Amino acid sequence: MFKNMIIDFYHNDVNEKLVVDELTAMMVFTVVEGKIYMTVYYIKATSTSIESHEVGPRIVMVPGRNKFGAEDMREEAMKVPQELVAPKKKKNVSKDMFGQTIGRVHAIGEDLEQLNKKIKLPKALRESKKEKKLSKK
């Protein structure tokens, strides 16, 4: 729960990879015996090693509430209003000069020969062996 609160508060993107040369500061959160310690460090990267020095502030937080609200109430509080959600882009849909909606459908043509091979004809409609021999000649 605390991790979610910190991520929401600082609202930064989660990065899979970091460039160490570009890092200048680091915030460390540690939980010990119900207390949350926050420490800020300055980072200096050299060609052979990385050095960190505490620059402050140092904060000790003690949670005052040990019971949280119901899950459905939390979800309702975190719900984003529909007005703030960016509308989805409609692909392959446009309007002409008269205001009519035009849509494009990209479909691949079917091979009717393959389709014809898959259908099993009734015996009355099938070619007989004699007719097949005559058509081959």
3D structure, described in words:
With 137 residues, the chain is of the alpha+beta class. The protein has a domain at 2-65. The chain is built from four helices and six strands. It has helices at residues 2-10, 71-78, 112-118, 129-136, and strands spanning 25-32, 35-45, 50-54, 59-61, 93-95, 101-103. Strands 1, 2, 3 and 4 form a four-stranded antiparallel sheet that branches. A two-stranded antiparallel ribbon has the order 5-6. The longest helix has 9 residues, at 2-10. It is elongated, with a radius of gyration of 34 Å. The chain starts with a helix and ends with a helix. The model has no long low-confidence stretch (mean pLDDT 82).
How would you summarize what this structure contains?
This is Brix domain-containing protein 1 putative. It is found in: Nucleus, Nucleolus. The chain contains four helices and six strands; from the N terminus they run αββββαββαα.
